[in-house]
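Recall that a protein's primary structure is simply its ordered list of amino acids. Everything else, from secondary elements to tertiary packing, is in principle encoded there. The following example makes that idea concrete.
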Amino acid sequence: MFKYNYVGVLLLSIFVANVVIVTGIGSTSSCRGKCGSAYASIRPCQCNTDCAKYSNCCSDYTRICGASTGTSSGPDTTKCWDRCDTNYDQNLPCQCNNLCQKHNNCCPDYAVFCTSGTVAPLQTVTDGEISQLATLLTSLDVNAPSQSDYRLDRQSHISNADDKTDPSPNKLFSFVNEGALFSKATYATFIKLLDNYNPYYGQTESSTTTESNEEQGFIQAIMKTQVMQKAWSFLKTKGYSSARQTDFENQLKQLWFKKYSRKYGVMDSSGFEHVFVGEINTGTSEVSGLHNWVQFYLQEKAGKANYAGYFSYTANKVTIKFTWLNKWKPFGGFFVGTSPEWELAMSTVCFLLRPNGKCEFQMNGRTQEITSYDYHGHSDLIATAYPTN
């Protein structure tokens, strides 16, 4: 009996070993099931584009992953299997991000690896369609503050942006119903982001796991709202976003949170920091960005922002002069009475559809504009977006 069991076990072991060798299952030296996995130094070989750089690709990397080991200059740039959502680079033969449809230069495997395979053809979008979307998003903005949730004390009307005096001694916001608004998920996750940044140009931003998780938490919170769902539905129907939600979330993170340099070549800025938080231009010693009412209110409440009069005011928008961190913002504005998700949704839509200029639409019977620009020709990075007109 003992001899029979020994032989059986031995034969079974040989069979399993052969299966592992042939199929690569359970093997750490095969790329089966590991294509595009994160680089891990403990593995004997790798199955990602970094392996070309370190000359340690697994032997079946090309066969299993369908990619070239590349050269010393980098991986195969004619395929998307491990390059989804990489920055748009006009020097590459083809692209693996949502902008490739706009420029008609997607790599052949883009739909297979980077989308659900149902990316719509890119369409022309009229101002009327953007107005219809803005009206719809406004009607769905259940987290928008009501007229009773905040009060503005506009005080002095001004016309000279160069006059560095303050004819308005009181705060702009005389009341905000924090209990009703800031406990909501989109506001709570938004506010968590506001202290993640160093405001000064030329000073490197930190990047921690906690901060990254807060960014993801905010994106996930706004994606649960009808405002963002309808904005995404519009963009994917028009061919400006993938039909897969994770792709759209990655697109938002790239557009708003990817860091870039405004001064000295250091990673000191991002679209979100500039638009929603604010920065200090160390060259001009003036405030740059800060186009959000929640941030302005919180900074004013903390004594860091000082309101100095308004240039224009409508039911949805105010243009003002103020100081922040003792630096002047001679002329700037933001929407009021809107939620974080509405502002990010409309700014994203306008940036994608009308980049580097004005995006005009009708809202509440008024003509509104959002002006946006990309970062030095990088059409997947937002440099600024703000209300005009």
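Residues 6-27, 67-74 have pLDDT under 50 and may be disordered. The radius of gyration is 26 Å.
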